[in-house]
């Protein structure tokens, strides 16, 4: 649908990051996932009467690490508050979170856009809070004619950092770039596993539109997006919807919406009532968390390499372009893979090309993460070695890669098994070249009659024939050379 | 600070308490009495004073990140009014 | 045996004058025969008590004498006790068998205590008369038409009636001290953070403290010695070393400076109550203490501040009672809202609902600053008043309660009047100070108590003052005629 005139889009993100601590934020219960319901829900997590919270040191440290990574102010004193509301997956009837005094203050993140420009997205603050449990809606018996929902509190109490951005983004590209950057930061820090399909990171997108120069429009919130692709689509959908409504003379209702990635549709969440009054107040079972300068400095000193630093290192050490370095340093999984492959293969440029090219294409087509790549970094490295030492040509390399992907073994084994070694024996090759020339008199004539410019193209026919006759194993440069001599 | 039935109804809803019409009047009166007493607070000169949340001004002790709590499902699930397949049951919730 | 104090019984057990089994059976029997008149127990744990008594006897035989070995104690039904019903005086938890035990109770059990049962209390500790319990009101053994005070009414009444020689209670606004005063027994609220709140069902988290009730200060010292101490399961429980309370009992009070706030003797205070407290202080003067007049001006706002802070915290603490994971659930809920609203409305009594509503209101948007935040500021003023006073005095004293036990039902329709029963005790909770009530005689035939307030972690000092007083008087040895 086309829209008339200029519309400005204003986007802010709220990102929930599940911290990869051993135990929960307010109890010593395991944060492990995948087990039967309520096997990791202690007396405290269940909100049994008389139970009390105790704060996980590592959650605090992880929050500080994040703050340092985004150049934010770290609060020397922060306070946990209670956000009161009723929902079955919230056992205490309140969520312990932070409001007035969060542990991380204002910070910023720089993202690189498609066109190579950089944009700064400001972070308003980041705070610690506990996750709720899960509601399971299927397969429970009916009761008195009503369906039932099952509550699993394994997740209740898992530590979260909620990162709230300023509304600095102006479209899906900005938003996704920012989201990816945050993902890269938290995984590089090691504070989050970053497995989006497991809900390790969840994004809420606040979107509003306005005509340029006008005040901010009413915004809507689309909750719980857990993939970058969905985020992009959900934003596009909502922006279009809002513009449609406004251009039709309607008004945007402030609401929360749920996006369905499978159908690419979104709907308003059934609101239980009008705006909830959460009655925040400092949790009286907890005391203010005090952090010292020394503790902050110690954490700063031991920060691992962050994405920006890694990118700079790639550009310097491996001579990669801004674009390439940005792409490869973007996710810690990709970075690790790339560096291992570059190490093994002894050629960073080749490793970069393969990771961003063939590997990325294959991963995308099968919807896999690099962590699940059937071709390991070591294997790719081996492939690169064979390319470099001339054992195989780049065309054959693609074949080998495919075979390796399909589980046929290491590149060396595949090359051996399939006899894919590049033919560089000149004698053998010369014979084939002669044969090809002898078999195609018409094309030879055509070639000899053509001028230099056309020859460049026409020689391709012969190269092709030779490659066919050698099953691609001939060294293309050699073939070219020989043909030029003989034709 | 007058409490009328609307205010009572709103507070009751936030607290998930059911207040019948018959109770509202009496409840409003009682609450008004209590708040009337509480309104004495407005006399206090507290402009320059910080709130005191805990009598002893100490900081939060922090615990090591270790798993110390065992699986207690077999002990606590039997306490539930309704449960099935290891989950607590509530009437179907539609989001 | 029931005429003896806990301290005397301990000596008796050690001297093998009787066994723990005999002792426990004696009290269990008394409870069976007499508690029907008082309703001070919600659950009697006969089997468990006898098992614990037998175990204690074995320990004693083996020479293992701990602080409370073999001594029967009654625990307020606000403490979670594993595998035993823990009702908090409410229909909401009538069917709740706790899956764990509160630290305070655990520590006493570790010191060899025998649990007689769980005592009756105002529902969720909200009350000053023990009339709001789902299990019916508790009667004052001195006059069974009168209230025992609350919320630890069952604990105080059972002690006074000699149905238990020692008891635990909790105090949020006076709930140990006021019933102690109305029953002629001794009750102590420790410094906030002295005793762990783990397993103690929360009413107002920043005010609640567990403490002992006994027939004497020495008994309270014995019990406190067992209850006190750091617990890393409670973030608000301080890591302060536990003093030797028993060792401090006999200190001389010569030179002790007793602060007497004018606010504890207001114009409208019953003359007989005022005289009773003054008499108690005169007794200490005889022993060399000096009275110092002082003023705690912010104290007059303590009741309003409390009645914002406590209900606000309670309204949040009680949200977990929703009929989902434990406790009362209504019949045939039609949907989630119905489940919540009916379970909570049917599970909670009127006073609890009232306070939840006040608390919800005080925290709600637009009112937070005017009520909750303002009350916390007033709290600081009160705390500062005490801090200033303690620069000049060692303890502060006055009457515990403005009145003696009132008739059952007398204040049923007047919550604000009921709240005024705590006027002398509440400020102590807001400031987090330790305080006790000791029996100081009778007014119109009913027990009256005098309060002794100490500075932070001065439990030893205030127990010492009460003990010295009790060495020179015998009010604490009086028992109600019908139960002597």
TrEMBL record, chain B:
Catalytic function, reaction form: L-aspartyl-tRNA(Asn) + L-glutamine + ATP + H2O = L-asparaginyl-tRNA(Asn) + L-glutamate + ADP + phosphate + 2 H(+); L-glutamyl-tRNA(Gln) + L-glutamine + ATP + H2O = L-glutaminyl-tRNA(Gln) + L-glutamate + ADP + phosphate + H(+)
Protein's UniProt keywords contain Transmembrane: no
Key words, A-Z: ATP-binding, Ligase, Nucleotide-binding, Protein biosynthesis
Pfam families assigned: GatC
This protein's record includes keyword Nucleotide-binding: yes
EC number of the protein: 6.3.5.-
Enzyme class: ligase
InterPro entries noted in UniProt: Asp/Glu-ADT_sf_sub_c, GatC
Subunit description: Heterotrimer of A, B and C subunits.
Its job: Allows the formation of correctly charged Asn-tRNA(Asn) or Gln-tRNA(Gln) through the transamidation of misacylated Asp-tRNA(Asn) or Glu-tRNA(Gln) in organisms which lack either or both of asparaginyl-tRNA or glutaminyl-tRNA synthetases. The reaction takes place in the presence of glutamine and ATP through an activated phospho-Asp-tRNA(Asn) or phospho-Glu-tRNA(Gln).
Family label: Belongs to the GatC family.
Name this polypeptide is given: Aspartyl/glutamyl-tRNA(Asn/Gln) amidotransferase subunit C
Organism name: Alloalcanivorax venustensis ISO4
